[in-house]
Specification:
- It comes from Caenorhabditis remanei.
- This is EGF-like domain-containing protein.
- Keywords: Disulfide bond, EGF-like domain, Membrane, Transmembrane, Transmembrane helix.
- The chain has about 110 residues and is α+β, with helices and mostly antiparallel strands.
- It folds into two domains: about 35 residues, Laminin (Ribbon), CATH 2.10.25.10; about 55 residues.
- Helix content is about 60%, strand content about 15%.
- It contains one helix and four strands; from the N terminus they run ββββα.
- The strands form two sheets. The chain has a two-stranded antiparallel sheet.
- Strand 3 and strand 4 form a beta hairpin.
- The longest helix is centred in the last third of the chain and has 65 residues.
- About 5% of the residues are buried.
Length: about 110
């Protein structure tokens, strides 16, 4: 017979030297009378704070990068638009000068 029936924390087995207890996980002792204290790893407040600030830093950096890309795209397309506007103004100036030349030519004919 096993000592104290292994306290219901293990199984009783017959060995060459007599009965013995084979304990369940987290129990130990001749009759599985002692338990191993199971603790979960604790997270310190410093670890939580450092993770929080790292996340905030990455978020802020991402916002700056996105704003920079949007600003660069806006400036690029605006510069292309100003080239078009300048070309339109140059064309309009040439058209006005051609119209003046035509008037001058027609004025000389009449």
């Amino acid at each position: 017979m096993c000592p104290d029936s292994c306290h219901s924390n293990g199984g009783c087995y017959q060995g060459p030297d007599g009965p013995f207890c084979l304990c369940k996980p987290a129990f130990y002792g001749n009759s599985c009378e002692s338990a191993i204290e199971m603790t979960s790893p604790s997270v310190s407040a410093a670890d939580v704070n450092s993770d929080f600030w790292a996340i905030i830093l990455v978020f802020v950096a991402t916002v700056f990068v996105v704003c920079g890309c949007v600003t660069a795209a806006y400036c690029y397309f605006r510069s292309k638009r100003s080239d078009v506007v300048a070309a339109d103004e140059e064309f309009a100036h040439k058209a006005r000068s051609v119209a003046q030349r035509v008037r001058q030519f027609v004025g000389r004919l009449v």
